[in-house]
Amino acid sequence: MDCLFCRIIDGTIPSDVVYQDEYVIAFRDVNPQAPVHVLFVPKVHVSRFSRLKDRDVQTAIFRAVSEYTEREGLEEDGYRLVVNTGAHGQQTVDHLHVHLLAGRQLQWPPG
Ligand code: AMP
Predict the structure, then answer these.
(1) Tens digits of residue pLDDT in 52-109
(2) 38 vs 5, 51, 53, 89, 99, CA distance in Å?
(3) Is 95 in the pocket of ligand 1 (CB under 6 A)?
(4) In a domain, 109, yes or no
């Protein structure tokens, strides 16, 4: 299986890593949709949340987001978390990731 994010995790594809712990890596999106656009990715390969059964990893993803948003001072103005899932969600990389979008006024609803 050739997974783009697994190759980023193992270092064979370079990325701009902004956060890392035992379970999670976070790096800047190459095609940012906001001034801050970071992807939080479990180091274990899993395609979507419903297939992620490890509670330590589930918890770690949200802990990583919180630590990063607090560290970067994003709590006051706010941000958006997005998980595109499957065809209707327009998921393009089949390795679970949480988009963090911040740094500008976001619009709602999405398209
Ligand atoms: P999604 O469409 O929700 O599956 O999100 C995949 C995201 O990965 C997109 O926002 C892409 O811009 C981003 N992306 C693709 N390749 C890379 C890469 N090499 N490094 C960082 N982000 C990437």
Answers:
(1) 999 999 999 999 999 999 999 999 999 999 999 999 999 999 999 999 999 999 999 9
(2) 13, 22, 23, 18, 6
(3) no
(4) no
Please give the tally of structural domains in the chain.
1
- Centre of ligand 1 to C-alpha 38, Å, is 10
Alpha-carbon distance of 16 to 100, in angstroms, equals 15
Task: Give a yes or no: residue 110 inside a domain.
Answer: no
97 is catalytic: yes
93 lines ligand 1 (CB under 6 A): yes
Query: Order of strands, edge to edge, in the sheet holding 17-20?
Result: 17-20, 24-28, 36-42, 98-102, 79-82
Pocket lining: 12 vs ligand 1, CB cutoff 6 Å = no
Q: Model-level pTM greater than 0.85?
A: yes
